[in-house]
């Protein structure tokens, strides 16, 4: 029997989803109320001081500084409990990533979601990959690893060319048919199998 491999982003998604369910259940059951209720009470007091009713709210970034600070504190408490729940299920690697770089954790989870639930969303997934190659190339160049930086940029350019072809697939296929035999893609209809030279 052949072993199926899953990508890093799919691992993040599949591991995170059940833990998120447990975490959200605990929020609903009031398991974190000892930590959250004092913050919520302070938030309500700020809202009352500014004359907001229960149905009114400030959009993110437009509230008074004291309220934004409390909102950040509230989110931090939830993030801390989520990381603890990940560790509870033996997912120390994901808890560490979540604590160190929340943005990267969310990016992996979103890429996993796209690859599992939206396999036709190839262009957005490729765009994410190209951005990642560019970021990695910058890091490599800043560490004076120029060969690695050039290789990463080359991979990024390949991704950009593929995105351009996918956005005009019929035109790309028509042009590919006009290429000399040695340059023509073997599988003209499946652009994901085209080589860098084909692109």
Structure characterization notes:
- There is one protein chain.
- The protein is an all-alpha fold and 199 residues long.
- The chain contains 8 helices and no strands.
- The protein folds into 2 domains: 8-115, no CATH class; 120-193, no CATH class.
- It has helices at residues 8-28, 33-49, 65-88, 92-100, 102-117, 122-142, 146-167, 169-177.
- Helix 1 crosses helix 3 (65-88), helix 1 crosses helix 5 and helix 6 (122-142) runs antiparallel to helix 7.
What percent of residues are in strands?
A: under 5%
For the secondary structure, the number of strands is: 0
| Unreliable spans | none
Biggest sheet layout: none
Overall outline: elongated
- Average predicted local confidence, pLDDT: 85
What would you call the quaternary organization?
A: single chain
For the structure shown, list the relevant keywords:
199 residues, 8 helices, mainly alpha, 2 domains
Summarize the structure.
The chain is an all-alpha fold and 199 residues long.
């Amino acid at each position: 029997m052949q072993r199926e491999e899953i990508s890093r982003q799919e691992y993040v998604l599949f591991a995170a989803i059940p833990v998120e369910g447990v975490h959200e259940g605990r929020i609903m059951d009031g398991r974190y109320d000892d930590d959250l209720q004092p913050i919520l009470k302070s938030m309500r007091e700020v809202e009352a001081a500014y004359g907001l009713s229960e149905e009114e709210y400030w959009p993110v970034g437009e509230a008074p500084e004291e309220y934004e600070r409390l909102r950040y504190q509230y989110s931090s408490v939830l993030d801390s409990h989520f990381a603890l729940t990940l560790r509870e299920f033996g997912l120390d690697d994901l808890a560490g990533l979540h604590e160190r770089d929340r943005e990267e954790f969310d990016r992996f989870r979103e890429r996993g979601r796209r690859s599992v639930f939206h396999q036709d969303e190839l262009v957005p997934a490729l765009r994410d990959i190209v951005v990642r190659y560019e970021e990695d190339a910058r890091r490599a160049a800043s560490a004076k690893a120029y060969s690695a930086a050039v290789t990463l940029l080359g991979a990024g350019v390949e991704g950009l060319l593929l995105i351009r072809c996918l956005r005009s697939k019929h035109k790309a296929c028509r042009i590919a048919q006009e290429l000399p035999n040695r340059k023509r893609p073997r599988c003209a209809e499946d652009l994901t199998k085209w080589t860098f030279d084909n692109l």
